[in-house]
Automatic annotation (TrEMBL):
DNA-binding region: 36-55
Listed Gene3D superfamilies: Tetracycline Repressor, domain 2
The species this protein was found in: Sporolactobacillus spathodeae
PANTHER family in UniProt: HTH-TYPE TRANSCRIPTIONAL REGULATOR RUTR (PTHR30055), HTH-TYPE TRANSCRIPTIONAL REGULATOR YTTP-RELATED (PTHR30055:SF199)
InterPro entries named among the record's database cross-references: Homeodomain-like_sf, HTH-type_TetR-like_transc_reg, HTH_TetR
PROSITE patterns, alphabetized: HTH_TETR_2
Domain of life the protein comes from: Bacteria
Domain named HTH tetR-type: residues: 13-73
Protein name: AcrR family transcriptional regulator
Length: 224
């Protein structure tokens, strides 16, 4: 009879977490392609067979890490967008509130965020699948935020979409390029103090974007 592992036991859970944490550390350091199952198991101090048992191999582990990031990220995004749209906040304040929540989530999951954002720049089957699912949801939530907060943007073709892209880049850039920020500008994106200062810049962008949208001309009616 095949042995069954009880995932509720402390030892089994801690071994699974050790595998996950070791994989994330090695994936960040040398990349997923350069990391072997044996290296992950050795770093975690477990039998290599456990990697396959828990995750179905390295590819399954990679998929689990990326899915876990997006599930948490989108859960935070949906809750924040829903809450801010139901509030009496100004358009700029809504954008800042959502940005704060999402930046905080990425700081709390710094190495996972860094790894996932880097992986999403690759052209792989997994990335295409994630884009077709998780990133389409992200697009929906962010467009909802922009359309309801800045309805004037609907007056110009693709204005809302380009605003979403700018907003998304502001939120994710520190975690896509942390090494650049650390080595060149001596910023520490994982530190709470960074979020506080960075949100000031996002506030300036949000207020400027809101002001610009209010000045957008109303399209002239088309004569029959």
């Amino acid at each position: 009879m095949q042995q069954k592992f009880d995932s509720k036991t402390t030892g089994d859970w801690s071994s699974k977490e050790a595998v996950r944490n070791s994989a994330l550390k090695l994936f960040n350091r040398i990349g997923a392609d350069g990391t072997s199952v044996r290296a992950i198991a050795q770093d975690a101090g477990v039998n290599p067979a456990l990697v396959s048992y828990y995750f179905g191999g390295k590819q399954g582990l990679l998929e689990q890490l990326m899915a876990s990031f997006f599930e948490g990220y989108l859960k935070c995004m949906e809750a924040s967008v829903t809450e801010t749209l139901a509030s009496n906040l100004t358009a700029a304040e809504r954008l800042i509130a959502v940005a704060d929540v999402l930046i905080a989530y990425q700081q709390e999951n710094f190495y996972l965020s860094r790894f996932v954002h880097r992986e999403m720049t690759r052209d792989t089957q997994l990335v295409r699948e994630l884009m077709a699912s998780y990133l389409m949801k992200e697009k929906f939530f962010l467009l909802q935020l922009i359309h309801e907060s800045l309805p004037q943007l609907s007056r110009e073709v693709l204005a809302a979409e380009f605003t979403v892209l700018q907003f998304r880049d502001l939120i994710q850039m520190p975690f896509l390029q942390p090494q650049y920020l650390q080595e060149v500008y001596y910023f520490q994106p994982s530190e709470p103090a960074f979020r506080k200062v960075y949100l000031r810049s996002i506030r300036q962008w949000a207020e400027h974007t809101a002001a610009d949208s209010r000045r957008m001309p109303i399209p002239s009616p088309i004569n029959a």
